[in-house]
């Protein structure tokens, strides 16, 4: 841990977004004695976990002038990770038998995650820091500080100066689309705008993407559709398999071509006449409010330059980003990154010089390039997350990630694409036991 020479100082900090990342950040900033304003454009906390049946008017979300609907949840969604590993480290995500409205399952439905975030916000009095229905429309540096312009639901504009801005706006709202020629006549929709299967009744549907959402959505649709065909880029080119327990669901390799008569040809040579293509092809980073005079850019979905995915070297510590890495334990990461940001802002922990941070970024990019990893995977941590978390933990003097938490995560990640029963059958009771031992210790320490 590198301790700063400065006395602890309190800063005025703007946090953009009151999803899980913004809430964790607000808590850590206040713990470190900063004064915090959280800007949230919706009416409530929870971000992605606030389900809405509303969708965007443009089903592929291509129109830049469209009205944005933030959440990408579908109605049937249950978590793809067990609840023990999803929660914040000192506020376990455990069932609430005292409340009948709650979902006690290990992989609960989406409403339970929102309820958990509401409990978290209430336990730590976070809502009082949030300005609801207030959208940040511009953030720019000014004389070593940050100008934040906002607009509330009454159309009233705000223009304020902050010492620092922490960006927690989420990155599951701006869809990434697979390229399908305009000549293909069928309907197309991105999973961001998928809610329920009813519109696909009796249709032949092609789902592009075989990761968590693709797997869930194809099963959801298969319950009402005539046929569902998944196009996967992670399987061999001759893949053609009927998936278990459903008579109308097939796994293929990627789409090779599409035709004006509505046919879709897969790399395995199979041809289907489809009514709809559903793109479960992920999302892009987007910060439409941020103006750093071109210093922070998004190039092929790599946001940079960023030191350890958090601080842009020339603008640190005044500007920081929470939650960019993916294929990671999200809530744990929000917690640990925001502890780091809060302690750097107070001067308790120091960052290396701008040059040293930039050297680190350049070396990291060179390493990815040497390994043949495309730019768009810069923030995909996967296997390297433990090293990343533990490095940050050391910087700010907090505990490394628990053994059971990371083991549950890896198991969950593997199962969510390989099994359709993982949410109700499991064989990692030893990890659950380890988790609950830790939760009991936490409770004991709180009580003492
Ligand atoms: P969000 O929850 O998206 O919050 C961002 C907030 O910022 C929103 O409230 C938004 O309104 C606000 N905002 C944005 N722009 C502005 C602005 N300009 N001004 C003011 N406010 C603004 N993770 C898991 O751990 N387990 C799961 O099972 C899981 N399932 C998932 C399923 C789906 C379909 C998706 C897409 C993701 C899933 N995730 C899951 C990942 C999930 O995104 C994270 O768990 C986490 O909730 C993201 O939190 P966040 O705060 O970064 O973003």
From TrEMBL:
Cofactor field: FAD
Source domain of life: Eukaryota
Flavoprotein found in the keyword field: yes
Coiled coil regions in record: none
EC number: 1.-.-.-
Pfam families: FMO-like
GO molecular function, one term: N,N-dimethylaniline monooxygenase activity
Listed InterPro entries: FAD/NAD-bd_sf, Flavin_mOase, Flavin_mOase-like, FMO-like
Record's keyword terms, sorted: FAD, Flavoprotein, Monooxygenase, NADP, Oxidoreductase
Protein family membership: Belongs to the FMO family.
PANTHER family: DIMETHYLANILINE MONOOXYGENASE (PTHR23023)
Protein name: Flavin-containing monooxygenase
Organism: Arabis nemorensis
